Amino acid sequence: MPDESTNGGKKLRIHGTVARDLGIAIVSGHYRPGELLLGEIEASERLKVSRTAYREALRILSAKGLVESRPKTGTKVSPQLRWHLLDPDVLQWIFEYEPSDDLLESLFELRRLVEPEAAALAAARRNESQLERMEAAIDGMSEHTLSTEAGRQADKEFHAALLEATGNPFMMTLTSGVSAAVAWTTVFKQRRAPLRNAIPDHRRVFECVRKGDPDASRQAMTELVDMALLDTKRQVTLD
User: Fold this and answer.
1) What sign does the dihedral 58-64-66-67 (CA atoms) show?
2) 203, 160 in Cβ contact below 8 A?
3) What are the φ and ψ backbone dihedral angles of 230, each rounded to 5 degrees?
4) What is the mean pLDDT of the chain?
5) Domains of the chain (ranges plus CATH)?
6) I want to staple 120 with a disulfide (CB 3.0 to 4.6 A). Which of 18, 29, 114, 214 is the partner?
7) 182-199 as b/e, with b when 16 or more CB fall inside 10 Å?
8) pTM for this structure?
């Protein structure tokens, strides 16, 4: 096993690499819920890593709800309902392979429940600073395009600023999950074919929020999410 790997462009330490590889194996179904993982000694020998690194990797996976360890019984894969599916790392691991249609539908179902209402709240509560951030993010998306890391980072900033503009602290806690979902579905679509230009969809949302029109903002964001789902399904059929 190599000493380093990458996670969203960032280099990982050995335990992070082990956690990533095991995480991908779990979310892809290679290891099934209830299945026992290798013991510490056997795993460290097979993976050629220290026992400390393997233990730390399991701690990472446990914190994300993917595994549970018990004395004498070992470490086993948790049921999917315990997985922290909106954790940015877990979302990345899901999109490292081919997500099921049901999982994709469920992710966009969540986005459709959250983001249009967030846009409506933002239209009623946004301030000038948040509008400036959203507009700067759209400019960044236009300059770099969503096919680049810089463009996708600008896309994440747009959604983060919009969620902040809701003024709802509970909704703001969804920022990292929503941003990760947006980013990794974009990467997933890009792997299969050129991306449709979704920047006009974002600009329509922004203009409605800027005008302070909750109903129009809700509708514009609904259309943005629906189009993103159609784009994702289209890419899957091309594979």
Assistant:
1) positive
2) no
3) -60, -40
4) 90
5) 6-82 (1.10.10.10), 99-238 (1.20.120.530)
6) 214
7) bbbbbbbbeeeeebbebb
8) 0.84
